[in-house]
Structure formats: structure tokens, C-alpha cells
Structures
1.
Amino acid sequence: MTRTGSPRIGGYATVAAVGLAAALALRRPELAIAAAPFALVLAIGTRFARDPRVEVDFALETDRALEGDDVGAEIVLRAETAVDRLDVVLARPAGSEILDEEGALAVRLRAGDERAIPLHLRFARWGLYDLGELEVRARDPFRLVIWRATFDRTHRLKAYPRPESVRRILAPIETQAFTGSEVARIKGDGIEYADIRDFVPGDRVRAINWRASARRQGLVVNERHPERNTDVVLFVDSFADVQGSDRSTLDDAVRAAATLAARYLERRDRVGLVAFGGILRWLQPGIGITQRFRLIETLLETGVEPTYTWRDVNVIPGRILPPKALVVALTPLVDPRFVAALEDLRARGFDLVVIEVDPVGFVEPGQSEIEALAYRLWLLEREVLRNRLERLGIGVARWGDDVSLEAALEGVRTYRRYARIARV
Amino acid sequence: MFAVGVRVVAVALVALVAALVLGWSPLVSTSLVLLGGVYAAGLSVDEASLDGASPVFAAGLYLTAELGYWSLEEREGAKGEPGDGPRRLAFVAALGIGAFFVAAALLALVDVVRARGLAVDVVGAAAAAAVLLAVVLIARRKP
């Protein structure tokens, strides 16, 4: 531990020195008597201040939690020597808060004492938190000496995004070859009725539609739509993050991505991820609970890294964007590079949907006339951009404070149902 | 003279309050030195042989210093255990009582051995200088 003098040492020394000097100069012993307690405390306090020996440990009750949940933690103090006052300060990463003890503790320990101090922490935002850097300050009984030490007992906690409420998700246009929960357009073995056709040798007797056969005077069989799985790629915009007081567009985008990933994986669909921005992160499409944790842990590392480099979709490996995959883009539609990537993906024939994480709620309109005019122009530009994307065949769902994710997806579902290619 | 003393005491109090409000510890020693200066001026004016109230002044000055620095330490915001405050208060009170008895003992000693003469003056000056040197060395040495 590093040993330093407290402000008392300088203060008491000043008073003692001035008192004694004044006693000499004025020949008044009373001034020396007044200064004597200060000199005595200095002499005794510094002489008998012994370096404390303290061990500090930190433990979390879990290494995974949902954002907003309370997590228990414990600081364990072990003193080999007596400490009159020991202050313990836990370094708090941004986004975390300590619900009790206000992050600082002051305890008195006897030699051989072991004390466990419980804490409750809360993490307001998803992400990775490194906790366990502890600063310790020890003081002697006269408060003349301060010992300082930092203990690094770092534990990483993963705060997962809290899922949004979504009952129905978007159905991709095309399906894949494996069994899943999506009714395919093709005909084969399944439950959903598709069509009828004439019987050909090899058809199963069970498939014969006897009522239709009686009307046609020939055997007719039912055709069904099989259930297939789909490929979904979540395309998260990490070029820009519009921040409000307690959340941001990237926070909401990651929550929505985690929600959609969980819902699609429940249906046995393959889900992949591309975080497209200053740093490109991707995860190849996969299925199952393992893929869900991989996706969430990749999302936890998503952040905005400022860059002026123009990126396009050529940098994304081909295996990450399988053909016929539904690409769900989560973006505030602020950075032109991401908009260009969306147009590029659409031009390459991908089934593309945009969930616009509306940044309007995070931006103040401005006080002056010019600021208000600029704000209106910005809103109009966004409207023009949405129209441009929809004319390309990209459904845009606006998700904001006034529109829930469920309602936004319903709007896109309606667009996809009725949109047709216009031939002019 | 009385008016000047009152003004100096007022300045000392302002310095002490400023130290507590601003969290600047040098103002605590400044206020103590000012209070000591008023006491010294009073002694010079009275020209009494020996002030019997000096132990009270010494204890009061020491308690003022302890309470001032304690207030500054509490600003750091470390939340103590239940009973920590009363325990510390009892310790400070004990230090104050100890300061009173030390000062009283010194006063009695001074009264007993006080005699006129250059030799005693020299011995006294040497002792005071030795104590002063020790205090300065302790303050300058990095603990």
C-alpha cells in the first residue's frame, strides 16, 4: 500500500511551528502550551502508524443478467492487522449503478477480522461490464497517515438485452430445404392445402381427394405446402448512434435484433448477424440455443466506431448472406453508407426489410427559426428516403416512441402483402 | 484593540467556514493560526504573569482543529458503519481532554520552574527550537 500524509500533518505542523515561534518571540510560554498538543499528536501519531495488511476480494453472484435486473455482489475484506478506518470504493463502469452503499464503504477492522459486504448492482443497458476494481484507503486512529491501494479483482458480467414484445414476426418470401415452421410456396408433403391434380402412378392412396375424384370421374390427389425453415440475417447499423438522455438508437436496435433472433430461432430458422459499421462483425447463420447465445454475445460487442471509410456489401463474405435469405435491417437511416448498402442488397435480389429505429425522438427541434427550419427539412429528407426505399421494394417499418415494434412489423407485413412490381 | 481582535476572530471563523464549504484544508490551519494570533495579542496586552486559562484555550484550539479536519474527511462520502460517528466523537473528545491535561501539566511545570535568568531563557529557547525542528522534520518527511 502507498503511504502518504493527510492534510492534518501539514496543518498541525504549521500550528505547532507558529505557536512555538511566537512563544519564543513574545516570551509567552502560554503559546507554546497551546501548540504542545499539536506537536505531541504529530510525534505520537506518525511514530506509531503501522502499515496495514489487508486483502480484498470481489465476487458476483452471476456472470449473466438481463438489463435492468438486480445482481448481487460481495466484497470480502480480510485484515491481518488492525485498521481503524478502511474505505473501499468499487469502480463503477458507465451504465451500472450500485443500489445500496453508494459505492463506498468505511469499516473498522480488528486484526484477523474477515468481513463480507453485500452489494446490489443494476445495469441499465445491455453490454459487457468489467467489475471488480477496488480502491482501498486505510487511516490510522489519529488520521495523520493514509494508505492507498488498488485491487484488481475484475469479473466480466454480460447484461443481455431485454426482449421487446412481438407476437408475430415477418415471414420470408422464400424458404429453405430443411424442415421448419414456415409454410413454403412449393408443393410437397405437408399440412397446409395447396392444390389438386390428377393422380399419377406412385401417388399415395391417402392423398386421393375422393370427393373431387367423384366429380371428375377420375382420381384426383391433394397437393400440400410443406413446412420449411428459412434463413434470416439481421443487418444492424453500427455506423451511427443517435443518443438521448437514457437510451439510444443502437440500444433499441440491439434489443430488437435480440428479440427477432430469439423468435426466429424458436421456429427452427437459421439466423445470422451482420453488424455493419466502423467495425464489421458477422456471424454465420445457424440454429438452436447455441446460436442464440452466439448472436447475443456478438450483439453485446456491437458499438459505434467512428470511421470515414466508405464500405459496401462486398466486404461481407458470401456465406454470411445466403441466397433467398430474409435480410432484416435495423437502422436509424442516418448514415448514407448504410442506406447505400441497403440499396445494393436490394439490387442483388435479397428479400430486404428495414426496421427504422426512429431517431426523431432523440433530436430536439431547436429554438431559433433557422434551427426549426433545419429540423423540418431533415424530417422531409427522411420521408423522401423512406419513399425511395419503398419504391425499390424495401418495406420500411418505422419504430419509435409512438409506434411499437409489433405495430411497425404489421405495417411492413401489409406492405409486403400488397406491393407489386410496377412495369412502366 | 478589542475591535481589532473581534475582526480577526471573525476572519478566522470565515476562513474555517470557507474551509468546510470549499473543502480546502489549508484554510483550517490558517483559521487556527489567526485564533492563536488573537490569543497572543491578548496576552501581550494583559501583561499578566501566566494565563491560567491557557489549557482551556489549548484544548479548544485542538478540538477546533480535529472537528474541522473530521468534517473535511466526511466530505469524501465514505459511508461508515452504524456507531462509527459516536465512536469517533468519543475519541476526539478524549483527545481534547488529553490536550487539556497535557497543557495543564505543562502550565504547572512552567509555573514551578519559572525563574529569571539568561540561562533559563537559553535553555527554554533551545528546547523550543528543538521541538520546532522536530516538528518541521516530521512534516517534511514523507511518511
2.
Amino acid sequence: MADNYSILRKPLILGNKTYSDVTHDVCAPFEKKSSIAWWITFFAALSMLIVGIVAVTYQIQTGIGTWGLNNTVGWAFDITNFVFWIGIGHAGTLISAILFLFNQKWRTSVNRSAEAMTIFAVICAGIFPIIHMGRPWLAFWVIPYPNLRGPLWVNFRSPLVWDMFAIGTYFTISLVFWYVGLIPDLATIRDRTKSKIKKFFFRFFSLGWNGSNRTWSRYETVYMLLAGLATPLVVSVHTIVSWDFATSVIPGWHTTIFPPYFVAGAVFSGFAMVLTLMLIVRTVFHFEEYITIKHIESMCKIIIATGGMVGLAYATEFFIALYSGNPYEKFAFINRALGPFAWAYWIMVFCNIVIPQFFWWKKIRTNMILVFILSIFINVGMWFERFVIITISLSRDYLPASWANYIPTSVEIATLIGSFGLFFTLFLLFARFLPMISIGEIKGVLNYGKNSHGGSK
Amino acid sequence: MTRRLFISYFENEKDILNATRAARDNNYEILDVFTPYAVHGLDDAIGLKPSRLPWVCLGLGLLGAIAKLWYQVWTSATSWPVNVGGKPLRSIPAFVPVTFEIMVLFAGVGTVLTFIIISKLRPAKKPKSLYKRVTDNRFALVLVQSDASFDVKSASEIFASFNAVEFEERLQKEEN
């Protein structure tokens, strides 16, 4: 009867929760006063954000000359950060959409936070191409709108235009997906909260949700459709990002392996960031019974898989460069591994190929402190991957006469710090005001109140 | 016109599923079932047909794709043709990525808007006929007392056997 569950599969949620336990536990963090730890981290994140705002203001006022770019290295820190943040976002969509289509029920504990992470990461990413324009107040020129210059349209054959559409659609769909998932939970909070202001906002955004099964039935269909749409979308987004490079003729960029390589890398880096965030969330907000060791282990396993794909891509790239007989291509790769930026290349190899191998051991996967440290290594490694691809290839291309070095300026470093500040500020605000775990979906995967064979039929 | 509703409350998924099936077997008119989460199998128990939203999604996706493809061809080849690297003006393969993105955008956003409209949801709406704790931990089975033969006592007995925890009768203004 109700208390039976299969001996083969352990329950996803521990602690024999009832429905109201779930509501209570998930709502607890934002119904109490904020803890001191929250305020400390919030002010730390806010300070980082302010550093970034100051740097970006100075850069916009003075010009792109405040960055370390030169005629040869025209893309460096900014585009590295852009690709890095977009990649982070991809794990959120993978968890919310692809794991949903594959009926991986463990996703329910982490999907809400992972989707929030996607949205915030895309916001961070979007800032970089805009400030890179140098005159961000003309950013709207990338949108094809009827204008008095002809009308002169954007060049639809350009990957940079594709990118604008891809990021725009990705952000919109992620936001819609996240919001649709939130509606039932917003209604739960609306019916719980005593505060009048909260009641007003939650009533506004919960759209009059009343738990009707007719609505639930359509809701489930919509959720499935959105998952089906988001799945090819997420693949397309990083594919298009990789085309920003692959359609050019720079050695080290002009390869057909880029789309799958970038998508795998994005998922890899995104899962590392999800792990970093989730390990903090489960400890700080006491969600150990919801985000269990099993969840952490599953994510570690995905990291092994995607890390393997990334490693394979590195090897393939290198092999093809040597095998192709193209001296420029060959040079580009030898220069990566042995040139002036070799340190960056080897940081990348160490963090992205060696570090994930530790996750083969269950002892490491179940040690939360070790997983946390290793996930940070992967975040660093994936940032360096983009740095290696972008900066090293540009710094030494065809003409030795135009070779140049690149050193980031304090403004660029401050902007990177600022983007982390923005990301964490938004995430902490999300943790303070919205349910970090999907209340409705968790209730659906509980063993409580189900038939012995685990469900409806 | 008002109608009289008979509401039974349950505390878990198994009971609401069995009670809903029993309600149908006894030929009661089920107005709706209210649940804190999406209970799988309830659609079958009530006898709801699958939603037609996938067709809306398909239609909107096709609309977005066709419109965007036309727009790209029109801007690139008709309105102001610009020769970029000697490539053909109607370079269809190069138009595929943006066409795809707009298809997804139209299908996704359009489907959600359609869902919100047909489910009669709107911002700041006061939830209609909200039953006790159905957004937390209770399941409400709402029957319409369609004629005088509806016997509250025998209905209560049937649903009590499925562990109903509470019964309620309500008058409700009929819509439309």
C-alpha cells in the first residue's frame, strides 16, 4: 500500500515527506527572515556587481581602448566570457527539457534552480557582445527593423546575426519555460502567505491558478511541447555560437567539429556550475532530503560523459590538425600546446580532462566537499577552453608580422568579476523570493499516497 | 442559473483516482477535480480527451518559419539586395538558422499564450472556486447535482469508502 516502494529503486526524496511537508520545506527559506549567511553572500555578490558596473561605465565612457585588445587580437576576454556564460546556461535547459523528455524523474529536485541559472547566465552572456560593440546605445541596429537608411537590412547570412536571433529566442523560451513551471507554485504561495504585498504579487503572477485538472492536463501538454522545443533550441544555440568562429578562416577555428564540440562543452561546464550552486543551496537552505547524494552522483556521471566528449574533441582537433597537412592548422595547434599561452592550454587540459576522471570513484562522488572543489576546477577549465580557442588562435594567425600578444587590463578583469557578481546577485534574490525547488513536481514524484506499483494505473 | 455542487476532499493520489473512477462508474456528473500537482491517470479517470494544443504549436511553428523565411528572402533579395562575398541573393541554406529560431520562438511563446487564454487564466485574476488547500495537500472531487435524484447521503457513503476526509455542498452560478 501507501508505504511500499520497490526495493530496486531508492526513493528520490528522502525522509518520508507528505505533501504539506514539501510545501512547508520548500517555502521555508523565503518565509523566514534572511539568514546572516545570505546577507553576507548577497553583499559580497553586490560588491562584485558594483565593481563590474564601474568598469563597464568607464569602458563605455572611454572606449574599447580600455581593454587589452589590439589589431590582431580583436576578441579576447569579452567573447570568452560571452561563450562561457552561454555555455553555463545550457545545463539548465538540458535538465529542464532533455531530462524531462527522457523521463528522468530526479530532475525535479534541481530543475527550477537550474532554469533560473540558465536565465541569469544568458543575461550575463548577453552583456558582453553589447559592450563589445563599443557604442552599445546603437545595439538595436542588429535587429532588422524598417529604418530610414534605405531601409538597410541586417545581413542574414552572417553568423553574428544568427547569434542575435539564437540568444534572443533562447532567453525568451527559457524565461517562458521557467515561468510556466512556476505558475502552480506561485499559486501555492499565494494561498499560504499572510503578507499583503506578497499576496498581491503572487496573485498577479499566478494568473488565477486553482488546481483544476482540466488546466493541469493542458499544462502538462504545454510543458511537454516546450521541452520538445527547447531541446533542439539548446543544441542550435551553441551550434550557432560555434559558427561565429567556424565560418571564419582563422586556423584553429575553421573546423566542422566545432558545433558538437561546443555543445558538449557547454553541457559539461553547465553541469559543473549546477553542481557548484546546488551544493551551496542544499547546505545553506537545508535541502539535503530533496537534493540527495543520488542527485549529486547523477550529475557527476553526466560530467564524466560530457567531459569524455570534450576530451575526445580536443584529441580529434589535434589529430586532424596534424593529419591534414595544412601547415597553418598544424602550427595553430602546436602553438596552443607549446607557445606563449601554453599555460592556459595545459590548465584547460588538466581541468577538463584529468579532473572529471576523479568522478569514476563513488567515494569521491559522495564526498560533497570534494565534488564542490572539483566542480570549481571544471568551471575554471571551461573558461580557459574558450580563452584558448579565441585568444591563442587570433594572436598568431597566417602572417608572423602581425602576431601579437594579449594581456587583459584591469577593466576587463573587473568586468569578468562584475558578471559573476550579477549572476550571484540574481541567484540570491531568486533564492530569497521564489521557491527554489518545484513544489508541484516534487509532490508528483513522492512515494506518499500512491499505489504499491508506484502510480496511477 | 445556479447549480448545486457536491465536493468531497481526499488526502492522497490513490484515493482521488479511485474515487474519480467510482464517480464515473456511478454516472455522476464530474465538474472537475482539483489537485495540488498533476496526477497522472486522472485524465483517463475523468474521461478527458487529450489536449489539441500540439496542433496549435505545429501551426504557429510553421507560421513563424514561413514568415521568417519569406522575410529573409524579401530583405536580402528584393528590398535592398546586397552582394555579400559573391553569394547568391536567395541563399536559402544561410537562412535556415534564423528561420529555425523564429519557428521555435513562435511555437513556444504562442503555445503558452494559447494555453493561458483557453484556460481562462489572466494576471491578477482572483482564482475562481478555490477549494480548501488544493494548492497544498488536498484533492477535491467536484460533482454537479444534476437532478433531484442526486442523493447526498449515498454519495457521501460511496466516497467515504475511498477515505474522503470532508464533504461540502456549494451553490455556484453557472457560466456562459
